[in-house]
Amino acid sequence: MVTSLLRRLGVALAVAALVTVAALSLNRVYSGWLLVELCAGAAFASVLVSALLRRLPAWVVAPVSVLAMLGYTIGVVRISATAGGVPGDLRTLAIDAARNAVPRLLSALIPVEPQPDTVLAPVVLAWLAGFAGAELAARSRRPAVALLPPLLLYVGALVLVGPHAAVDAWQPLLFAALAALALVIGSARSGAGRLTSIGPKERAVLRARTAGGLGVGLLAVLAVVLVVAPLVASVVGGSKGDPRRYVQPPNLDVLDQNPLIRLSGWAAYPEQQLFEVEILQGALGIAPSPSPSPNASLDPFAPELPVVDEPPVEAGNYDLRLRLAVLPDWDGITWHMDADYRNAGRVLPPEPAPPGFDASRESLYPPLTIQQRITIAELQGRLLPAVASPRRVEGLRVAYDQSNGSLLGNEPVSPGVSYTVTSENPNIDLSLAMAVDVPTGDAVARYLQVGPAVPPQLSQFAQKIVEGESSPYLRALAVQAFFQEHYTFAPDAPSGHAYPNLEFFLFADPLAGGQRGTSEQFAAGSATVGRLLGLPTRVVVGFHVPAGGGMVTGKDAVAWPEVLFNDIGWVPFDPMPLADGATRPVEPEFIPPPPPSNTPPPSVEPPSASAAPSATIRSTTPAVAEAPSTAGPLAATIGGGLAGLVVVTFLLIALLRAAQTRRRLSAADPARRVTGAWNEVLDGLTLAGHPPPASASAAEVASFAAVVAADRRRRPRAPRPAAPALDDLARDVNAVAFGGRTVFGPDEQTAAAARERAIAFRRALYRRRSWWRRMLWWFDPRPLRRRRSR
């Protein structure tokens, strides 16, 4: 008895150990060891519950184990929330984790930080696998079947990890060893001495059969290995499937997908308080160098970095900019981002090096570490502003696009929300800017797209700006200087940056509103011109931060272009007008001539001496004669308005009638429902073109309705529902009219019957109408004007 108990307990413990190995495999895409600890606790706790309740029926043990699992998961939510820095009360965290456990686990950024919603599903599966394996080991006494739940969990962990972790040979070997140990323990028999009770001949036969069975089994296993091994070897080096690619990332609304269109609104309200920035940390350390940082003279708005011999400078003294979104895609209509946001923990992975970037030069110019606390005021949307290249976010759950370092909140931000971001702002090395080229190939094709319909005059305009400049960096500087010198910032400029908007901004007469715009047009125009010149560009939307931090308002919102260079990376440019605001109109040679018209000019007869003065005026002023008449558009506008008014009137009538019917047939008082049903009958007769006489009694109206419903002058094309008799309804109406709301009034059953008769009668009358009269049935206003029957 004791040996059997120890054998079952040994198999159950082996099952818990196998579940822990599965958690170890899954932990390769997690950070830290919290997931392994929580899953191991779930596995051994489920085995313990099963062992303690082994004498009870299985239908009792299962609910008890589920209740214990719920208690354990509550503790898991609290522990993981504390360890992951997730704010909120326990109830909110538990509901959010239960609702979003699987989607966020499949869409989380790797390495996944153990938080309530990323550990809940593995912990629950670990508990269920441990409980199922322990129950199978204790009740079925088949250890091979008991190993099936942890095996499925291990395979699921391998599929979820996919190509995101290297192969660890020791984990599958450990899993196989523990499985073999469980089989050995489970197959041991306490009655091994039973063989002594049989004779030598029977014992030899039994051993021979056992050896033969083992030999046949071994040969079968070897045959399977010979067949399957080549197939397995052919896919070992192949790419692993990733279930994450089937999960849709968070959706963006229009404001978040293209925040560039929000700049005109912020410029129109320059005093609107968007958010407050507090610089908590920002120390600069650079390696020895024989000259000052190249940013001092070449980077358009990078901070003035000190020479090497000076001590580190606080980031609060610099002109910082926070990024809200990076827009790399341009289709000729709008700049937007096709972002791949993934749920992230507090620690964010670094952005991948851009094409052509020399990562070895980062050691010469290390990034500037800046920690900022941001408190939302009136900023809307889900995009979160932060200094470029965030590495850690605290105080808020975020999703992260690793391709460009943009942050997205799980929920739209609201006033008072605060979060802290630690960023590593890149220190751009422009010492080689004059000599380097721009990258080419498929890796940068996305940053060179210009849309399907590029205006030819815009391409000619771009080439004229950079005439004589051969270096890509000098071309980018020429574009920047041209925009700074020729265009004016106007906070009241309308939004829009499609090709027609850009043409108006670049070429239209200043007196007509051209050559003026917000940073939306400056950034979009200069980035588009850069792409037409073969420069990989993107547009960044962000905010200027006051010196040392402070409140960021609408006037601080800004957009700027960035150009990609070999060995340097993304370099920002500032096409906005200079501080003095002195600009000059675009020279005529840069403005393309209007396209020639294919329509010949109208022929004008010379005026005669006898012509009337009015005729002379018309012939000498062709512009007035050619002016389009406003009679057509005015008539179309009036006609459209009248048609819209008619449609709105019909819809209003239909809504009022539906509300009237609902009010009549759904009244709380049964007496009101009876009178309402009778009014519906009277309305049906009126709509059918047979209004009853005003002096008729209820009984006479019921007889009249029977005659109308029995009218067979038109042969029906399809079966029609029979109209019910209204004698009972007339009697109930008389009882209500003379009895009122006394104790002898109608009950619920009488009111329900009246309602059914009225609906059936009106439906029968409706089906007897022609198709065009049925259309007008619902828009007839007469039931709204008819007085209620008493």
For the biggest β-sheet, the strand order reads 9-12-6-1-16
Please, what is the average pLDDT?
Answer: 77
- Structural category: alpha+beta
Beta-strand residue percentage:
5-15%
* Number of contiguous helices: 24
Rg result: 40 Å
Sheet having the most strands: 5 strands, antiparallel
Distance between the termini: 89 Å
Report helical residue fraction.
Answer: 40-55%
DSSP strand tally: 18
Spans of at least 5 consecutive residues with low confidence: 283-318, 597-631
Shape: flat
Please explain how this structure is put together.
It is a single chain. This protein has 790 residues and is of the alpha+beta class. Among the domains are: 2-191, no CATH class; 200-238; 644-785, no CATH class. The protein has 24 helices and 18 strands. It has a five-stranded antiparallel β-sheet with strand order 9-12-6-1-16, with no helix packed on it. Strands 8-2-15-17-18 form a five-stranded antiparallel β-sheet. Strands 5-10-11-7 form a four-stranded antiparallel β-sheet. Helix 1 (2-26) packs antiparallel against helix 2 (34-52) and helix 3 (58-84) packs antiparallel against helix 5.
Task: Provide a quick synopsis of the model.
This protein has 790 residues and is α+β, with helices and mostly antiparallel strands. It contains 24 helices and 18 strands.
Overview features:
790 residues, alpha+beta, five-stranded antiparallel sheet
Give the secondary structure arrangement, pairings included.
Elements: H1 2-26, H2 34-52, H3 58-84, H4 90-107, H5 116-140, H6 143-146, H7 148-161, H8 170-187, H9 200-236, H10 254-257, H11 263-268, E1 273-283, E2 321-327, E3 329-330, E4 335-336, E5 342-344, E6 368-376, E7 383-384, E8 386-387, E9 390-394, E10 398-401, E11 406-409, E12 418-425, H12 456-465, H13 472-486, E13 488-489, H14 499-507, E14 516-517, H15 519-532, E15 537-544, E16 549-553, E17 557-565, E18 569-572, H16 613-620, H17 622-626, H18 631-665, H19 670-687, H20 698-709, H21 727-739, H22 748-767, H23 771-777, H24 782-785
Parallel strand pairs: 13-14
Antiparallel strand pairs: 1-6, 1-16, 2-8, 2-15, 3-4, 5-10, 6-12, 7-11, 9-12, 10-11, 15-17, 17-18
